[in-house]
Amino acid sequence: MLTEGEYPRPLKWNKTMTDNEGLKEQLAEYAHKSWSGWIIYMFSKMERQSNGDWWIPKWAYERWTRQSNTPYKDLSEDEKDSDRDESKAIMSITRAELTKERQRVIGLIEDIKIDFSHLDHHTIKEELWRLDQLITDINEDRPQG
């Protein structure tokens, strides 16, 4: 029971998003696709030598070295646009997963269906404390990945 003036502690961050295997796999798949696309592009600019080595043209070496050593804020707008396209793809994957998580949470809230209209302020605080403890217990019982 809460004492006068005491409020329920803040809810702990639900680790669903940080432990979400589906999201992790989608982002890993995207990272691999992005990386492999870059490798294919890079190889297309290189020339294979008779001994099997690859030769990188001077223009490509200089450009890619400059880009890799340049902070994002100092890149050209075209170079930033390329990075922005990458971030949009990542945001799209994350947004879709956040939308699913939001719907899951809304469903949980609707399932609880607690009617506080007839309760006094003190009893509402007790109910919120009980609910917070229940959520904490659920989170602590969740297997850690």
Q: End-to-end span in angstroms?
A: 34 Å
* Structure annotation, total helices: 4
- Structural domain count: 2
Report low-confidence residues grouped into runs of 5 or more: 6-14
Tell me the radius of gyration: 26 Å
* Percent of sequence in beta strands: under 5%
Strand order of the largest sheet: 1-2
Order of helices and strands: HEEHHH
Q: Name the helicity range.
A: 55-70%
**What's the story with the biggest beta sheet?**
2 strands, antiparallel
Overall number of strands: 2
Mean pLDDT: 78
3D shape:
elongated
Task: Determine the structural class based on helices, strands and strand pairing.
Answer: mainly alpha
In words, what does this structure look like?
This protein has two domains: 21-113, no CATH class; 115-145. 64% of the residues lie in helices and 3% in strands. The protein is built from four helices and two strands. It has helices at 21-45, 58-68, 77-112, 121-141, and strands spanning 47-48, 54-55. The protein has a two-stranded antiparallel ribbon. A hairpin with a 5-residue loop joins strand 1 (47-48) and strand 2 (54-55). It is elongated and about 80 Å long.
